[in-house]
Design a protein that fits this description.
Helix content is 27%, strand content 36%. The protein has helices spanning 10-19, 51-61, 107-115, 134-140, 151-160, 183-186; strands at 2-7, 23-27, 30-37, 40-46, 68-77, 87-95, 102-104, 119-126, 146-148, 165-173. The chain has a five-stranded mixed beta barrel with strand order 5-9-8-6-10.
């Protein structure tokens, strides 16, 4: 079995790297960090931040030889019931405006994630920038449970290839939290 896990940043990959031995490899046209896990070959791709970077990484690394794909990393909570560190698994992901097209996660992968402790939620919204103001988070919370910046493109490419995929994210900030810096300027 061949599983691709995508994360935006090295910092999101670092905890895995500290507990497993990874080697560099090439899958498709992309550099991946691979390890054996439970009889599966797992490859981790660092996509970079944002939809544009995720789309490029997905086009290079997601191909028909994969058994499934996991879009992972951090997300901002858009509803008050989600707390920092809580793991959310989205049944679907929207991009652009929340009313635009959505891509569905695999129901069996959502079930598996829930069985391992993740909280299934209706929807993630993939934003084109960091949402750092609480007021804007509350507004987006009318349509989605959490906001992140890459999963839409990862699930889109997976669907195009007929690969089951799931978006799983850890909450990094709550809906009431204002981020202290404008991360968009940093990125």
């Amino acid at each position: 079995m061949k599983i691709l896990v995508t994360v935006a940043l090295e910092a999101e990959f670092a905890p895995w790297r500290s507990i497993r031995d990874f080697r560099r490899d090439t899958w498709g046209r992309s550099e991946v960090h691979t390890t054996a896990l439970g009889g599966a070959e797992v490859g981790v791709v660092l996509t970079g931040v944002g939809s544009r970077q995720a789309a490029l990484a997905a086009s290079r690394s997601i191909g028909c030889e994969l058994d499934f794909c996991i879009s992972s990393g951090l997300a901002g909570a858009l509803r008050p019931q989600y707390q920092i560190g809580q793991i959310l698994a989205a049944r679907s992901v929207t991009g652009g405006t929340p009313a635009e097209r959505s891509w569905d996660s695999s129901p069996s992968l959502i079930s598996l994630a829930a069985g391992l402790g993740a909280t299934p939620v209706a929807r993630f919204h993939t934003a084109d920038r960091v949402i750092h103001r609480a007021e804007e988070k509350r507004h987006l919370g009318r349509e989605a449970d959490a906001v992140e910046m890459e999963s839409f493109e990862i699930l889109r490419r997976s669907a195009e290839c007929g690969i089951p995929a799931v978006a799983i994210r850890a909450v990094g900030d709550t809906v009431t939290e204002e981020l202290p810096l404008d991360m968009n300027q940093i990125f």
